[in-house]
């Protein structure tokens, strides 16, 4: 063990080095440390501090070496352990960092800052018992700081000791005068939340009454009071409270749901499904909403709910009353408000209502067209006004002639969206073209035309129309992002990123995704590169999304400290809830799936394929570096700006170079298993990864989890057969215990042979396209009749063409067939090219024709320019000739004048 004491002069230099490190002046700090180490080369604290400084200036390998050396020489001193803890924290190795902080605190138990850092790390690693212990010590040492009271109460809350958490807050509020009203309001709400979480709802309701004078956010108080009264089954008071809330905002679903539950029409904690209401419920709801409509006639939400409980002619009348004011005002979101009526169309009464919507809107379009061309319904009806039904009279009263021109375009737009939702694309295009012809300046129409082309599988035209929309309003960031997304989905990555970068101001030509943290964008770019089989770029982008979410998780401590300081304890509880599930968010799941799939593919393809990818990456890196040398915009950037745009791995080469792709996939998978355990995708990915790794125990656990969620899943079927086939081939190398587990699993699933099991699965799911495909893939996997398997894959029933996801499913089949044999893929294209006549994947000739037309237009344009140039040349020649003639005339006149002068 080395002596860690320093002479007074060197001690001052060392202290100054620490100050400079805290001020982020790392190079100056390093200079000071070097002075100490010249005279004391084995001073452990200086060595540890040097390691931290080197880490900050990107000398990572040296940093670890110095931190370890400092720790080995000063193992009994807190500073060396603290430095190693900080090093691990910076490297995201939180569990190791926590152990180091614990050892550091053991060496110096009077160090408050060390105890605070330890408590923060305990919270980050979710060591709630340790966090409680550390916060208890801090409260004893510093009882005058409110943060310690809040943190101790919060620590008890996390450990589910609600009584102690409530007592701590009460003790703080009684012993301290809180002058800040906002802080008092937050504390009162937090107290109430603790009481509610403990399950004492009666006390919670009474406590709400007690804290009412201190509450600043009265709406929040009323909402919670109404909810408590509902839980306590005090329905009359709950209903009164919800009516008070409705007076303030009659467009809140939660308030209307509360009134329905308070009147005991809809049971609490049940999903509201209007198509499942019985006659008694419909009658009660009809009475309720009739009263509410009279009281709140302008509420679109109440009028929409009236539609939900009406059928047949009653629905028709209510729909006319609902939709006409919106047609007159020209509300583009008219269809979006009614989207719920297009769900569960397999239920007959739901489909009937959609047909009524279609009929009514079609009638509106006809009437408005007649008015527009100067006709009236009276001329058409030839005087038979007596036969008009009640709905016709309502329409005639509501729609005025002068409003028809503005209204008609929105009716066309509604019908376009209606037919799109029903997958009747021909009619959708018909009405959309009418709308554009009517009002060519309404950019919503071009945006939807892009979406319509996307739905029919033509991303080329889709991206062009959305880009046209963007050009109509260049200041709209949302449309800019939509255009970006469409180009990326058309695999035009360069064009997509260029459009996205328009809003990046000065650094738009040098995007660095580390600083933007735009997860949807990095996912879209990753997917586009993945489709183009550019795996290094795809992996880089997907990994960037995962890094974004890791950064959100890491940054929670900053917000945690802020909440404790300001007294936002309810927000602090929400923060912990969010970060506990942050890796289950859809964007992260998409990126994680992409990363795992690429690493699995690298593992399957082997080392030679990896070398080819690395060679391609090296070429691309060389091109990028060469381009930077001659790029004037890049050369004009200062050093700080260059740091912002600099990327040490621009094409993902370092990620591809990994020698253990399965271990890299496992790192991402473990985060999903911890936080996204309810997602089926997590268990499917687990089964894939553990099968490839040969980790049969974990694979069997994943199988059992999938069986609990969706035992008939088509992806699971194929993965299960792959697992059992691999286990069968490696049976001799497996332990007796694992073989027993696999045999038990096969008995549970009643699997005698894999071929028979697959046939049973196929017969059971004969009417499900994706399940049939899975069974066909298993037939190929087992080496069975190839022709039969291909026949199953290529068959699509007429009824299945009504499926919303059919095009995507058929595109997946097309890709699978391309991997098997290009001839089969061509047959499949030819077979269904008429069904998917707009799809460029099924009709690649569409793109070829467009290219030819584009080339032809370009040639015509060039020819036209050439002709114009020739005409200009001819005009110039004529002009020159004319000028020369005029000159000749002038010279003749001058000569004549001179002759006259001579004669005189």
Automatic annotation (TrEMBL):
Query: Which regions form coiled coils?
Result: 610-682, 724-779
Domain of life per record: Eukaryota
InterPro entries from the UniProt entry: NatA_aux_su (IPR021183), TPR-like_helical_dom_sf (IPR011990), TPR_rpt (IPR019734)
Q: Which UniProt keywords apply?
A: Coiled coil, Repeat, TPR repeat
Record's GO cellular component terms: cytoplasm
For whether the record's keyword set contains Lipid metabolism, the answer is no
PROSITE patterns from the entry?
A: TPR (PS50005)
Q: Which Gene3D superfamilies match?
A: 1.25.40.1010, 1.25.40.1040
Q: Where does the record place the region Disordered?
A: 870-904
Q: What is this protein called?
A: N(Alpha)-acetyltransferase 15/16 isoform a
Organismal lineage: Eukaryota, Metamonada, Anaeramoebidae, Anaeramoeba
